Amino acid sequence: MIKTLALYSSVDGQTKRICQRIGEHIKTDHDVTLIDIYNATAVDLANYEKVILGGSVRYGKHRPEFEHFLIEQETLLSTKKTLLFSVNATARKTNKCLPSNNPYFIKLKHKTGIHADIEAVFAGKLHLANNSIFDRFMIKLIFKMSGEQIGNGEIQFTDWGQVDRIATEFQQL
Ligand SMILES: Cc1cc2nc3c(=O)[nH]c(=O)nc-3n(C[C@H](O)[C@H](O)[C@H](O)COP(=O)(O)O)c2cc1C
Questions:
Q1: Ligand 1: residue whose CA is nearest its atom 28
Q2: How many alpha carbons fall within 13 Å on the CB side of residue 38?
Q3: Number of folded domains that form the chain
Q4: Which tens digits make up the pLDDT trace of 142-165?
Q5: Does a structural domain hold residue 140?
Q6: pLDDT band at 42; cut points 50, 70, 90
Q7: Is the CB of 129 under 6 A from ligand 1?
Q8: What residues contact 147, with CB distance under 8 A and at least 6 apart?
Q9: Which structural domain, as residue segments, surrounds residue 80?
């Protein structure tokens, strides 16, 4: 079994769910430990052969804890087999769904200097009924600006087939 760490930075749980799905997909030959970025200080990367790093975007940014971890652990991470992915709503657009054209992913790489063996961008999920009035207003406004109208119900943008394909790629690393 290949010792694998899946470290996630997630506010509403979608990035965690994507990590869980990847973990489930590769469990026949990978022993996956799932950890929230907030508990990352207790993690010894030396114990793992492969590392999955996933972070979501809120108001244009990945969480600082996620970025700091990537910066601080860059040298050690470069000795592992890695998958780095970002989860955001912008990735629902066909011209912003790749690591090479998703603005948040490009910014993350530029800011942290990280390079991963596999890089991916996944469209996330919105469920505005669970968000504050302010957040609901802001998200609706942002969507309106790109000519789309959304309600408070759950909108699943994540392509789980894409998640599975990336998981297979990671499994074969
Ligand atoms: C308050 C709020 C702000 C968000 N800001 C952005 C944003 O700036 N750009 C973007 O592409 N997606 C944005 N999103 C969409 C999230 O990235 C998406 O919902 C993702 O699934 C969240 O992942 P998480 O549940 O792991 O935190 C935002 C969502 C919320 C609720």
A1: 58
A2: 3
A3: 1
A4: 999 989 999 999 999 999 999 999
A5: no
A6: confident
A7: no
A8: none
A9: 2-125+157-171
